[in-house]
Amino acid sequence: MSWPRRHPALSSAVALLAVVVSVWAVKLTTLALSTGRSADYWSEPRGDTGGLLYVALGDSAAQGIGASRPERGYVGLLAQRLRDSTGRPVLVINLSSSGARISDVLDTQLPALAALGREPDLLTVGIGGNDVRAYDRDVFAAATERLTAALPADAFVADAPYFMHGRWERDAQQAADLLTDSATGRGLHPVPLHEALRAQGPGAMLTQFAADWFHPNDRGHRVWADAFWREVQRAGVLPPLS
Fold first, then answer.
1. In the β-sheet with 52-58, what is the strand arrangement from edge to edge?
2. 204 CB contacts (<8 Å, ≥6 apart)?
3. pLDDT digit string (tens) for 49-108?
4. Closest CA to 147 of 134, 162, 158, 136
5. The pTM is what?
6. Domain boundaries along the sequence of the chain
7. Diameter of the chain by CA atoms?
8. Are 65 and 215 in contact (CB under 8 A)?
9. Superfamily for 37-235?
10. Which one of 22, 63, 169, 213 is most buried, by most CB atoms within 10 A?
11. CB 200 within 8 A of CB 216
12. Taking the CB of residue 24, how many other CB atoms lie within 10 A of it?
């Protein structure tokens, strides 16, 4: 009798595991390829002129990595909420880049913002997650102070994402506090992203993350968008529905 016939339950479990691993590998490959697609998508302004200008600074989350399409990332979702809430056209210029750290915002993205020659009606900043992955408190604190000093007064600045476990989460919580304190001290609009993600609970690991368990999926990006949007509404910086 062959091994599968002698151990039918075990062989079924092995077959199921093989299917799961194969599906996960396909999803990881798709996620890796999405980096280039998102960069291409956001390489030009998206939306319509003659209305509001929304500029996004940040890293791969702002690029929409993990979402099923770039426009389903939190930046695209926020743009649609701007259209719906104001009744005006919205042009999105997404200056973020995958893998970016705070230094990249300072060295590349902020100069690109200045070169636009127009103040955005909404500016969001989602940065710091990649800095946490190689975290040094003093380096992070100094970079945060440089960032908040360089941002326009009405910028909405998310704190660091929630990392869930162990040292990663201890560092992320500290980074989130540093970003919040620095943004508040400069009169900017801090966005409590860390707490918004923590509030989703442990089950979010299975329902709100892409295959790499780092980037948000469509559901996760909606949580990010919600966190930003609550602060935008609270600040009252946008014109009412026309």
1. 46-47, 90-94, 52-58, 122-126, 156-158, 189-191
2. 197, 220, 223
3. 999 999 999 999 999 999 999 999 999 999 999 999 999 999 999 999 999 999 999 999
4. 158
5. 0.87
6. 37-235
7. 77
8. yes
9. SGNH hydrolase (3.40.50.1110)
10. 63
11. no
12. 12
Rounded to 5 degrees, what angle do the CA atoms 111, 113, 119 make? 135
pLDDT, tens digit, 9 for 90 and up, residues 12-40: 444 444 433 344 444 445 555 568 899 99
pLDDT at 2 over 70: no
Which of 123, 158, 157, 128 has the alpha carbon at shortest distance from 141?
Answer: 128
Residue closest to 131 by CA, chosen among 84, 163, 109: 163
Residue 62 structure tokens: 């702002």
- 140 with 160: CB under 8 angstroms? no
**CA-angle at 89, arms to 187 and 188, nearest 5°:** 5
**Residue 94: what pLDDT?**
98
Give the residues across from 122 on adjacent strands. Answer: 54
Cα dist. 237→130, 197, 206 in Å?
A: 29, 24, 35
Indicate the helix (H) or strand (E) that contains 57: strand 52-58
Helix (H, G, I), strand (E, B) or coil at 31: helix
The one-character DSSP state at 105 is I
| Closest C-alpha to 134, from 96, 111, 158, 167 | 167
What pLDDT, on the 0 to 100 scale, is given for residue 30?
53
Q: How far apart are CA 214 and CA 162, in angstroms?
A: 10
What average pLDDT does the chain have?
88
CB atoms near residue 238 (< 10 Å):
16
